[in-house]
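Please describe the entry underneath.
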Amino acid sequence: MSSIKSILNNKKPSFWIFAAVIVIVVSIAISLGTNPIMVEEYQFPLTVEDIEKVLTEQKLDWYIKEHNGDDTRDIFTLTNDDNITFGINSYIRENKKVLNLSWYLPSNLTADEVENFYYNELSRNFKLPGIIYGNKKKMDKALSKLLDYYLNEENYENGLYWNKRVGDDHLRVSINNENRIVSLQIIPNELYEDYLRALNDSWKRTAEVDNIKIFNSTVADMKEGIPPVNDIDIFSKHFIIHGNLEDINELKKVPESLKNIKSKFLMPNKDKYLNAKLVDNTGSVNVFLQMNSLNSEELNSKRNHHVAMFYYNNEPFYVVRFSVLYSEEMRAEEIAKDFIMDLYTVDAKETDNYESILNMNTVDAKALTEATQINDEVLKSLMTVDAYDTLLNNRENLLFAQACYKGNYTMRVAEIQLSENKNNIENNESGYNFEVLLNIILNDGTVRKNTAKGLIELDNIDDIWKVTGYRNIIPDFIMD
C-alpha cells in the first residue's frame, strides 16, 4: 500500500493533463445533455412495421384493420376493443413529410366511455405525433397545453379548434364533440400556403353545395351590408377581401358579440381569437381573427382574407376565418374560376326563380329586369358594370337556368380547366380559354356528364380583378 501511495505521490499529473481531462469530461457531459436519448426518426410514408413498433412501445391497444398506400403515401385504419377508429395518413410531398391523424368515436359509446377516452386515452395518443413526425419535445408541450385547455370544464362541452406554429411546422387540431371526431394535422411551413389554397378551394365547393354566397369585395362595400329583418340572430354573410392585417393583438376579453352568437362559422374556443385591423385601398375595419399559425409578418402581407360578417344587437362585427396568399396571376385565375363556377351552377332555387320570371307581366320592364338579376348577386360582384350589362342584354345569365328548367334537371360544376390566352399581369390584364366539366343531375338522382367551353377576360381595377369580357360557346345539350 505504501508503495502505491509513493507512486501516486511521485507521479502527480501536471496541470495541463488535468485541464485536458476536464475538457474531455465537460464535452461528454454537454454531448449527453443535448442528446440524452437517440430518438429514432421514422421515414415517410410509414410502414406496417413502423406502426406496430410505435404502438407496442407506447403500449397502445390499436390493431391495424386496413392499409392502403404507394411510394409516397400510406393510409392506415386502426381500431380497438371499443370500436373506436384511428386513422393514420402519412405522405411525402416535395420531399417534405405531412402527417394526418384522426380518431372517431362511435355513437354507441356511453358518455362515461367518451369522457374516459378524452380524459385518459387521448393524452397517451397525443404522444404519437412527436414520435412519428419528430420534434417530440415541442410537439408534446404544445399538445399537452391544448389538452389542458380543452379538458377545462368550461371548454369541454364546446369542442375545440386549435392552430399553432411548432418550430417550422404548423399544428392543426380540431375536436368536434357533436360528431365525436378528433383530427390532427402536421404540415411543414414550406407546404402551408399550398394547404391554405386547398382549404380555400374546399370551402368554396362546400359553400356552393350549401348555397352560401361568397363575395369578392372591398372593405368599403362589405361595411354597407344590411341584415335580413327576421333572421338577425343567425345572419352571416361571407366575403373575400384582398388586403393586409395590422395592429394584431391577443384578445384580452371576449366581447358579448363574439361570446353570444352560436354559428358553425365560428370556432368554439372564442377566447383564443385575436384583434386586428383589416386594411385595403378602400379603408379599414376592425376584425376578430380566428386562431392561426401565421405570424404577424405573414399576416401583414397582402392576402385574400375570408371574412364572415355577423350581427349582434343590430350592429355588425367581422371575423377573419382564414387568409390565403396569392400571386397576381393566381388571383386573376381565382376570379375567373369563381365567375365560371357561379355562371354554370344552377340549383333548384334558380330554376324556380326562372319559372317566376316566365309567369311575370312582361309589360312591367323594371320588375322584369330586377327578376332576371335575382340569381346574379355574386356574378355581378365579379364583373365590371359594362360587362354585366352586356351579359344581361344577351340574356346569358338566364341561358343555363332556362335549359335546366326545360330539361327538369340541375347543374353543378365538377371541374374547371383554364388555358392562358392573354397574360399581361404587369399591365393589369389577363385572359383565359376555359373548359368546364358539368354534372347534369336529373330528378331521380342520375348524374350525366357534359362539357362547356368559352373564353374570359379580366382587368385589375383598383386592386380587384374583374371580368371585363365573356363569351360562351353554347354546348349542344343546352340547345336540345
Remarks:
- The two ends are 114 Å apart (CA to CA).
- Residues 213-324 form a domain with the OB fold (Dihydrolipoamide Acetyltransferase, E2P) fold (CATH 2.40.50.140).
- The chain has three domains: 48-192, 213-324, 328-479.
